[in-house]
Queue: 3 jobs
Job 1
Amino acid sequence: MAQDALEPRRRSVQCASPKGLHRVAYLEWGDPRNRDVLICLHGLTRSARDFDFLARALCDHYRIICPDLPGRGDSDRLADPMLYVVPQYAADMVTLIARLDVESVDWVGTSLGAVIGMGLAAQTGNPVRKLVLNDAGPVIARASLERIAAYVGLTPTFPTLEKAEEYVRAISAPFGAHSAAEWRFLTETWVRKADDGSYRPHYDPRIAEAFRATMPAGDLEFWQSYDAVRCPTLVLRGAQSDLLSRQTVAEMARRGPKAKVIEIADVGHAPTLLHADQIAMVRDFLLEGATS
């Protein structure tokens, strides 16, 4: 494969909300003429760059699209922070798929990105052909929401990249063991350098307003959406996940699309999909039955 195919192209699409227009940025990997499209969508405070390793491993088969959700990465911030909710994100993804001019897509979503993908795949006439839910499902444990609420929206300032990495290692400990280079990657793709030389998280801290306003009194459940999914579905679960329980994934294997479930040892919420074994799990599922 040509070297330039292993690097992404930066694109964007204009989307609409009740409070005006905003630009959603995305990275595009692989042959732009390829009709086999894979959308990879990140979690609550992360960005499109989370899928660099997966995209390089799969762009020989797919045209891969990795969006930044509004308020994250290179995408615009929303005028109204209460619009940082799944219905708006889903609408933006429908606009993005229309821009891609394809009839169907495969979908890999981590955490929030999985919830959005599941919501789309539950719609009548949806374009999702295969669905990978990375450590998220139709029940989200209240305890995990409380853990996330404790740090989302905070805007710490770090004098050096090393200090930023210490923080990322602390809040992302559930990701499991990673090499020094991988932790640096996870840090560099989460912060941006300010004019004064310091480093800050690169997302709109106002996403915390909608997150906290919509937190339920107990676990968050949406089995009705999951049961409406009809496409082949893979669920990856970190064995130590506090968000997705074994009980939930057992039920996911029994009902709705009867998902295939793989549990990943020594990982909590959520598998980063940086490691070769995790990438192979996704690749094997997506390419099963492929003719080319």
Job 2
Amino acid sequence: MTMREEKPKAPSQKNKSAKTKSWFWPVVYSGIAIVFVGMIWGYNAFMKDDAPGFAGDAAKETKDGLIVETNAEKETPKYPFTEALLDEVAIVQDYYDVDAEEAMRESAMLVFNQQYVTNTGVTISVQGKAFEVAASLSGTVEDIVLDPFKGDEIILSHADGLKTIYRSISGILVKKGEEVDQGQVLGTATENEWNTTAGIHLNFEVQKDGVAVNPRSYLAF
């Protein structure tokens, strides 16, 4: 009796479908997850590059190996005196602005030896008393001019082409080339022979790119 060879049975369509399902969906899910992670990474990288800078969030290395801030937060100018004195402060002579009202222009004319000179800053008085003069912005002491007739003067240079100038100062506490912080005491307001009308005062000037501008455009006196 001859035995017939039995042909191997082909796997059923049902088994094929089961095997296909076992690997198809995990692959799809993995692909979606990879795309999603890539989108998040790209978004974070984009936001990091375009985000506005604050002090300490970005830096670069100099040739000397020093780390310096590249996106430091800008300061806002402050009054050149302790803000506790604000209610006692008076502007006795204003900045000369050709577009200002007549009364303000007259207030900004300084008279010496029967000659009129326009005021390039604001003349600040605190009820005729001496008061501490403070740096309006952080910066570098560019120069100190000693003049017993007009009163000693301190010039600070700042970022963006700004300078602040403090005139009629005594007891100067800083030196040329020194770095100063905003609010740091520079000296004490005093009187001088050139502008006796103002008594004890501070003449505060702001320059932008070497040109005197109205300090009131930076501070609400």
Job 3
Amino acid sequence: MILTEPLRFTPEHLARPEPSGIDVATTLEHFAIVTYAVEPESLRRHLAPRFEPVCVRLNDGSIRALVSAVPFHDRDFQAARFPSPHLSFGQTNYRAYVQDRETGLHSVWFFGTTLDSITVMVPRHLRKLPWHRGAIRFSCDLDGGIYRRYEMTTKSSWAPVQLALEDARSPVRQFEGFPDLETAMLVLTHPLTGFYRGRDGRLGSYKVWHDRLSPRAGVCRKARFGLLDRLGLVRFEDQERPYSVMLQHQTEFTIYLPPRRVD
């Protein structure tokens, strides 16, 4: 599916569903989205048949799908509706941008996540989610909300990372191949529904909510994402030339639990 028509934020995108039950609220710090343009067929083989990669036509005429690594630090991870312990840990999500053939909606395909907390055992074993333990370390310096340094490493057998980004000190303004900025921001920064293949082989889905993001552009100085290389999506030698980099110091997220089975 080549994206050519503009998309717009709607009240449904921006209205927060009321949390209930075991839903979680958290503040995400050092939030980055590092996106790569990849061969659609390389991505398609990792997706369930229900999903089609969202593609853009680049300036050189090539058609590419988009995948992202999304590192951040969870601060004050807690139950949204009642008092609970406040947890803090690093996390990196790996996702691709897709269209659901059954509903026509834009969403993400979730390859999995690394989590720097023993609590990873709950979703990994109880819910069979593709979550993996990793030792994640951020080394970041901020000056008036601008990053003087943004570095992150992950020690993990599943998805090791070495990452260094530079703050371009300006808002993102355009994305190659998208009809306009709002369409790109909706697709890349505001996927509220995701799908994944569980560790038991079954298809699952999850929902989150966050307000509209206001990221700044970033520049990649170093990147080694072990998972993207291993999956055959982005070779190590190409990872320091991402399609785009976005940085946002902080944003609030709501996670609606539990995830559900859809097959």
